[in-house]
Design goal:
Layout lengths: L5 H10 L7 H13 L2 H17 L1 E2 L6 E2 L13 E8 L2 H10 L4 E5 L17 H10 L4 E4 L5 H13 L6 E4 L15 H9 L2 E2 L3
Parallel strand pairs: 3-4, 3-5, 5-6
Antiparallel strand pairs: 1-2, 6-7
C-alpha cells in the first residue's frame, strides 16, 4: 500500500517497532492521532519526551524511577535482607500488587535465552552477586517465570550464589508452567510468594 505522505510513512514505521504492533495497526493508530486535537497529540509527544529524559533505572535494583534510587530501595519500611529477583519492571509491579511482599527487588532485565542471543553477561546477574556480597542480604527469592529460560536463569544464579552465605528460595509453583509472571492473577502470585521454598538445582 502506497502511503501518500513521507511524514505519515515515518510515523507508521516508528509505531510499528512497538511490541505487538504490526504495520496495519500502526497505520490505524497514526491515522487516529491525526484525527485528534493537535493539543492532545502534542501532549502525548511531550509525555514521551519527558519519559525518555527523566525516567531512570535505580542504581541498586534496576527498577524504573525518577531519581537515582527507587522508592522501594530507599524505604526504611522494607526488609532489605530479602531480595526478590525478577525478570522485568512489570514483574515488580505484579508482585507489589499482591501486597504479600515487604522485601526489596533486583530486576535482571530479561532471562538467559541463547536462541535470542541473550547470555548472563547481558543481564544484571553480576550486580546481584556483588549486592549479595556487599549488603546484609539473608535471602534471595528467585521469582522468574516458570519457563525453560526462567529455569535456566534460576539455576545459573543459584550456582553463582553457591559460595555466598545466603538462603536461596523460589516461588511456589502455583504459577502455571510457561506462564509469564506479570500475567498471573494477584491471588495466585501472592500465595506463591508467601509459600516460597528452598531452591533445588
Amino acid at each position: 500500500m502506497e502511503i501518500p505522505s513521507v511524514y505519515l510513512e515515518r510515523a507508521v514505521t516508528q509505531m510499528a517497532q512497538l511490541p505487538g504492533i504490526g504495520r496495519k495497526t500502526a497505520m490505524r493508530l497514526v491515522l487516529h492521532l491525526l484525527r485528534r486535537e493537535r493539543s492532545d497529540v502534542e501532549a502525548l509527544a511531550d509525555s514521551l519526551r519527558e519519559l525518555v529524559a527523566n525516567v531512570h533505572y535505580c542504581r541498586i535494583c534496576h527498577n524504573i524511577c525518577d531519581g537515582d534510587v527507587c522508592s522501594i530501595c530507599s524505604s526504611k519500611q522494607r526488609d532489605h535482607a530479602i531480595v526478590c529477583v525478577v525478570e522485568s519492571v512489570q514483574d515488580v509491579m505484579a508482585v507489589e500488587s499482591t501486597q504479600q511482599y515487604s522485601g526489596v527487588y533486583h530486576v535482571l532485565g530479561g532471562v538467559i535465552s541463547p536462541m535470542d542471543g541473550i547470555g548472563p553477561q547481558d543481564l544484571e546477574i553480576q550486580s546481584l552477586v556483588e549486592r549479595v556480597q556487599t549488603e546484609p542480604v539473608q535471602e534471595v527469592i528467585l521469582a522468574l517465570s516458570p519457563t525453560m529460560e526462567g529455569d535456566t536463569t534460576c539455576f545459573y544464579i543459584y550456582r553463582k550464589l553457591a559460595d555466598a552465605d545466603v538462603k536461596v528460595t523460589t516461588i511456589a509453583r502455583g504459577v502455571a508452567q510457561n506462564e509469564q509472571l506479570h500475567y498471573t492473577d494477584e491471588a495466585t502470585l501472592g500465595r506463591s510468594i508467601v509459600d516460597r521454598r528452598p531452591f533445588k538445582a
